[in-house]
Known about the structure:
330 residues, Rossmann fold, 2 domains, six-stranded mixed beta sheet, binds pyridoxal-5'-phosphate
Amino acid sequence: MEKLDSALSIYRSIGRMPLAPLFTPIEKCERIREALPELPELYIKRDDFIGPLVWGNKVRKLEYSLFEARRQGADTILTFGGIQSNHARITAQVARRAGFDCELILSGKPPKKAAANFLINQLMGIPVHFVESREDRAPKMAELSRELEKKGKRVYPIPLGASDATGSFGFVRAMEEIIQQQQALGIQFDYLLHGCSSGGTQAGLVVGQHLFQQKHLNIIGVSADDSEDQIKGYILQAVEPMLRQLGRSGKLTEADLNVDAAHIGEGYAIPTALSNLAKKAFAENEGILLEDTYTAKAAAALIDFARQGKFRPSDKVLLWHTGGLLNLFK
Length: 330
Ligand SMILES: Cc1ncc(COP(=O)(O)O)c(C=O)c1O
């Protein structure tokens, strides 16, 4: 216990730059269970309420990334993603708010007509460097970083999804938040489902689970693109240095993580029959909007798990709405 206290005080000493009110509501979804009676007792964490223009879960991580950038004396933020990356656009937006310069590396062809996240990058006048493939993004960021440093800029590069050992602390804090909400609601969640890709959301949640002793909670990341092994690899890449920083010697391994890669369908951002059903059911019954890439697939996994009888009748399930709704308008 003493060791855990010391880990907690290290965690509490980590700096963060407040960017938005983050204490998002947890709401019970009852009407959707009339349409889909197979669903368990269901709650939803409304990170789609974060910030203006549906910022979503990324802001939690960026509070830690931008604090670190400022601490290191950086004046320019770089990051990368796809053309419609929520992460890249939100990073650019919070960088602008905090007074940093920002440039983005986006993979894909320059769109003929700017829309959604890409439109906002344009409105903010963010320099965008296009590369052909996902694999070209990190090398391009390293190259651009060297070029800018030569010109006297002080660059802080943020990796994909801000899912490193800095940004992922945002989801340790999110775990602390839901513990407070559990107490206020007088319940304990048995399952937490969320969309995942670069792994930082789950990295922070599992470190938080360890730090705040939430062993009973089953955290399941539903992959938007990569395989179970790949995503677990990304998660551990952040988890290991985080635990070291907190002075925790115990190791988390792949066996401690739950990643579902069975609901990707044909690929990233391509809807499946079940994700379409989930999107329609949440909108029509609850007035809650989901988008195709992350949240509708997480909800599809939830429906599928319920149909497979994974949940016990007494289970309470929390679906984490991670945002990303601008992609409804791309
Ligand atoms: C809306 C949304 N949900 C979920 C995720 C996945 O989170 P992570 O990359 O931390 O696994 C992302 C980012 O990739 C996202 O933009």
